[in-house]
């Protein structure tokens, strides 16, 4: 996010590729303690289209819970090339959260953790739901001049910033200021205060 909580423009990220950011968020979102398990991602249909285009090689690490108003059979026909055993289609964030909980609670579950991966409504509704335990935020120190995709209610009052937790994957990168491809940014991790 930039300083005004912008996350996208014209279907893309509004900044150039930030190699360390790409490495940081993909490592968090693909690492499981048990190598046989997957991370579930909750994501809107447009973000799903980005994932199958740009992050295809990580699909074997993920179980995707895609939010769309489309009928699931139409969705599955459109994306028939993808393994539907690892894609659930739901119509709302609440259904996505319910599905994620069901997957986590199944005995011998193949899912180890759940990430909300965007876009705007999934991020906003996840925060409103109070279900979020941790936020991995890449804060871009700029206001992008053009944007059409911005989170309007990014309220962190229920969260506290964690400083370099020792059990954190890639903890050594947290808090440093990076400058790559003309963009200055920092990784910030927040945890729900009640945890
Ligand atoms: N910086 C970041 O962290 C980040 C992360 C993700 C994406 N992005 C960027 O953000 C943009 C995409 O995000 P976006 O917000 O425009 O789209 P999005 O949430 O990925 O997808 C929007 C679509 O998802 C479905 N949807 C999402 N939330 C829904 C809800 N609560 N209820 C029902 N349907 C829902 C609808 O699909 P149907 O039209 O099929 O009904 C809607 O048209 C791109 O520019 C992408 O590059 C940035």
Helix content: 25-40%
Strand content: 25-35%
- Small ligands present: NADP nicotinamide-adenine-dinucleotide phosphate
Quick one: biggest sheet?
Answer: 4 strands, parallel
Number of helices: 5
| Euclidean distance between termini CA atoms | 25 Å
CATH fold field value: Dihydrofolate Reductase, subunit A
The CATH homologous superfamily corresponds to Dihydrofolate Reductase, subunit A
Strand order of the largest sheet: 4-3-2-5
Domains (count): 1
CATH C-level name? Alpha Beta
Q: Whole-number radius of gyration?
A: 17 Å
Mean pLDDT: 94
The number of strands is 10
Which properties best describe this structure?
10 strands; Dihydrofolate Reductase, subunit A; 195 residues; alpha/beta; 5 helices; four-stranded parallel sheet; binds NADP nicotinamide-adenine-dinucleotide phosphate; four-stranded antiparallel sheet; globular
């Amino acid at each position: 996010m930039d300083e005004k909580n912008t996350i996208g423009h014209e279907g893309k990220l509004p900044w150039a590729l930030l190699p360390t950011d790409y490495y940081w968020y993909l490592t968090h979102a693909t690492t499981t303690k048990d190598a046989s398990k997957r991370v579930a991602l909750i994501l809107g249909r447009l973000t799903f289209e980005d994932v199958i285009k740009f992050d295809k090689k990580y699909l074997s690490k993920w179980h995707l819970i895609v939010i769309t108003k489309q009928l699931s059979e139409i969705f599955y026909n459109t994306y028939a090339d993808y393994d539907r055993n690892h894609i659930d289609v739901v119509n709302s964030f609440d259904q996505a959260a319910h599905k994620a909980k069901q997957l986590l609670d199944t005995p011998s579950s193949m899912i180890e953790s759940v990430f909300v991966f965007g876009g705007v409504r999934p991020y906003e509704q996840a925060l409103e739901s109070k279900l979020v335990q941790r936020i991995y935020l890449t804060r871009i120190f700029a206001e992008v001049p053009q944007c059409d995709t911005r989170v309007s209610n990014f309220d962190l009052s229920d969260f506290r910033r964690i400083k370099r937790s020792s059990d954190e994957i890639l903890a050594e990168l947290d808090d440093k200021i990076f400058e790559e491809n003309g963009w200055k940014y920092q990784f910030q991790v927040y945890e729900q205060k009640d945890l």
